[in-house]
Amino acid sequence: MEKVNDMLDLPPDETLYAALVARDPAWEGRALVGVTTTGIFCRLTCPARKPLARNCRWFASAVAAQAAGFRPCRRCHPLGPMAEGDPLVRDLMARLEAQPDRRWSEADLLALGHDPSTVRRAFKRHFGQSFLDMARAARLRGGMASLAKGSAMIDAQLDAGFDSASGFRTAFARLFGHPPHRLRQGSDLLADWIDTPLGGMIAIADDQALHLLEFIDRKALPEGLRRLSAHVGGRVGLGRTGVHDLTEARLGAYFAGKAPLLDVPVVLHGTPFQQQVWRALQTIPAGQTRSYLQLAAAIGRPAAVRAVARANATNRIALVVPCHRVIGADGTLTGYAGGLWRKEKLIGIERGYA
């Protein structure tokens, strides 16, 4: 059988085979190998014995490998989230979960035997931001909780693991668009943290509805928070309402496989067209997916595929407005602002609801 690359942007076979032999984690999420003698496809980091170069075929996605007749390996699970298959990412995420208030630095990564530039590339590929950025966001959580409870600024600063007040304020301002002391004043909307099996989320709500629900590590979160704050005249504070409690309860039931419908009242801040797209997203049942073309047709705008894609990407109420249920026309998982690994997980969870 002639060896061909299934995507033109894959490098030469020799480069991929060298990465396979080295079990190079830099290729996680970028290439898979199919072994013609076994009919199985694997991650390049798979611990199994390596095949001969002449027996390898290379694929850019699991969908392409399966379409060519290969079965997924039972050792490296190439159908699972790519982030979970990267040992470097897996190790550091476990450490971050165990010590969310730790002040990480590049020196810490070097002490663990990791090259900081390799770590940076791996995390940006999987999550859209660096490991140090994710660690900084995790530390901010402690400060948010303290401020919401009325703690003094110095106590909140220490809880968040920052050595200086200016460092804490700078990080907070980067996230919310204004310093933390302003969040202590009277507010119309309140922000709080909600834990989920896929990571922490920021929920912003008033007494009536949810206005924003985003994963804390989403790259565009600061911009989304600033826009919402500007929309309501800066009156976004820290605290909790009954809508936060309802959202947390609905998310818990959803992840437990007990509630396919996240029935939470929402306020959609966007143009009439964006709101039309977001409402259409809410009609997609859990366990089903749609392409951008199908979504455009559903709102009566079949020629507006690109505009629909842009509206999908600007959704600020994750999961409740399920933009993760939109995939490529060829069945591949397209970009998801919360990270493709989360999109894979969410679609996997929802298969149980189908």
Walk me through this protein's architecture.
Its main location: cytoplasm. InterPro entries: Ada-like_dom_sf, Ada_DNA_repair_Zn-bd, Bifunct_regulatory_prot_Ada, HTH_AraC, MethylDNA_cys_MeTrfase_AS, MethylDNA_cys_MeTrfase_DNA-bd, MethylDNA_cys_MeTrfase_DNAb, MGMT. The active site is at residue 323. It is found in: Cytoplasm. It catalyses: a 6-O-methyl-2'-deoxyguanosine in DNA + L-cysteinyl-[protein] = S-methyl-L-cysteinyl-[protein] + a 2'-deoxyguanosine in DNA; a 4-O-methyl-thymidine in DNA + L-cysteinyl-[protein] = a thymidine in DNA + S-methyl-L-cysteinyl-[protein]. The chain is of the alpha/beta class and 354 residues long. The protein has 3 domains: 13-79, DNA Methylphosphotriester Repair Domain (3-Layer(aba) Sandwich), CATH 3.40.10.10; 84-132, no CATH class; 186-354, Orthogonal Bundle (Arc Repressor Mutant, subunit A), CATH 1.10.10. The protein has 14 helices and 10 strands. The strands form 3 sheets. Strands 3-1-2-4 form a 4-stranded mixed β-sheet. Strands 7-6-5-8 form a 4-stranded mixed β-sheet, sandwiched between helices. A two-stranded parallel sheet has the order 9-10. Helix 6 runs antiparallel to helix 7. The longest helix is centred in the middle third of the chain and has 18 residues, at 131-148. It is globular and about 65 Å long. The protein starts with 12 loop residues before the first helix and ends with a helix. The model is unreliable at 1-8 (pLDDT under 50).
